[in-house]
Amino acid sequence: MFSRFYDAQNQIIDYVKKINDYRVNIHNMSKFEEEPDVVIMIDEGEAHMHPQWQKELIYNLTKFLPTILNIPKIQLIVTSNSPFIISDLPHYNIVFLKSVNNLSIVDKSLVTSFAANIHDLLATSFFLDTPIGKLAENKINEVLTWLSEGQDKSQEKIDSIEKFIKIIDDPIVQEKLFQLLALKVRPDYWEEYTLELQKKLIDDKLKALRKKTI
User: Fold this and answer.
1) 28, HSE (Cβ side, Cα atoms, 13 Å)
2) Burial of 126: CB neighbours in 10 Å, binned 0-12, 13-18, 19+
3) 86-131 pLDDT per residue, tens
4) How many CB atoms lie within 10 A of CB 65?
5) How far apart are CA 79 and CA 63, in angstroms?
6) pLDDT surpassing 80 at residue 160
């Protein structure tokens, strides 16, 4: 990307020369002596970049483009679907667009951007409807459906639900599902059962850690 900008420097110089010739020879105007203003439009320039590179893109563009092009005044117009990009831009320089009935309209409800936490930006409905993978979301919804409506209370079913909850790495989601499972299976002493489930999980983690240290 930056090598193409470097190559564009000569094109800009040639263009300014042509404009000068046009002004002087065609319109008998004075020669243009000032530095040209440049507008650069980049459509999803962060596509296929590692998140760390996305995070640094605006910084690198604003730091290196004036030097590469040898032009002090550059306006950037960037389209992006990445929260890493808007985290480096003031909200008044951002236009959020969303599709409604196949029409693109401006969404004025989103005003948080500059130095905003990436996780908070991702959690907004503009970027993601939920901040987890679709497979994980569907599996959790299946478990929630069983917890609220499921009739199959066989030990095999309970064991499979318990096994799934154990692999969830979000401790808040995991604990809540353990509580719901306990209320479903052992409503008479659900709190004790929840602690038993959590104890089993901790014991399993301790065993795994001890195996690594041996």
Assistant:
1) 0
2) middle
3) 888 888 888 888 888 888 888 877 667 788 777 777 766 566 667 7
4) 19
5) 19
6) yes
How far apart are alpha carbons 107 and 97 in whole angstroms?
Answer: 6
CA angle 11, 20, 2 (to 5 degrees): 20
Cβ burial of 123 (10 Å; 0-12, 13-18, 19+) is middle
C-alpha 136: how far from its chain's center? Answer: 18
Q: Token pair for residue 123?
A: 């959690």
Tokens of 185: 């299976």
From CA 111, how far away is CA 66, in angstroms rounded? 29
Strand ranges, E, within the chain: 38-43, 74-79, 97-100, 103-106
Residue type, 151: Q
Rounded to whole angstroms, the Cα distance separating 206 from 56 reads 39
Q: What are the structure tokens assigned to 186, written together?
A: 């052992």
Residue that wins the pLDDT comparison between 214 and 198: 198
Residues in the chain: 214
pLDDT tens digits, one per residue of 28-64:
887 767 677 788 999 998 988 888 999 899 999 998 8
- pTM for the full predicted model: 0.64
Q: What is the DSSP track for 182-206? A: HHHH-GGGHHHHHHHHHHHHHHHHH
d(CA 37, CA 94): 21
- Could you give the C-alpha distances from 186 to 103, 164, 178, 194, 200, in angstroms and in order? 52, 18, 11, 9, 16
> Looking at residue 77, what is its pLDDT?
94
